[in-house]
Amino acid sequence: MPTVKTIDNIKIDIYPRDHPPPHFHAKFAEFEELIVIETLTCYMGKIPKVQRKK
User: Fold this and answer.
1) Which of the chain's termini has less CB crowding within 10 Å, N or C?
2) Is the whole-model pTM more than 0.85?
3) Dist. CA 14–CA 49, nearest whole Å
4) With contact defined as beta carbons under 8 Å apart, do 24 and 37 qualify?
5) What residue segments make up the domains of the chain, in order of their start?
């Protein structure tokens, strides 16, 4: 897994050649959210609100 950054136990992963739109995976405990890079909007999934703000 290509972890680009870790912020307070939140892992930010970017996978090359992943499906569109360009996004990254934010993972915290058992939660995962896909976030569109251009707009920082949620594409799929959900992580807790406190971790999302970080």
Assistant:
1) N
2) yes
3) 21
4) yes
5) 3-53
Q: Could you give the CA distance from residue 47 to residue 20 in angstroms, rounded to a whole number?
A: 21
Exposed e or buried b per residue across 8-23, where buried means at least 16 C-beta atoms within 10 angstroms of its C-beta: eebbebeeeeeeeeeb
**Which of 44, 43, 42 shows the shortest CA–CA distance to 53?**
42
Helix/strand/coil for 52: helix
Residue type, 48: P
- H helix or E strand, kind and range, residue 24: strand 23-28
Does pLDDT of 54 surpass 90? no
Residue 25 to residues 4, 19, 29, Cα–Cα distance (Å): 10, 12, 13
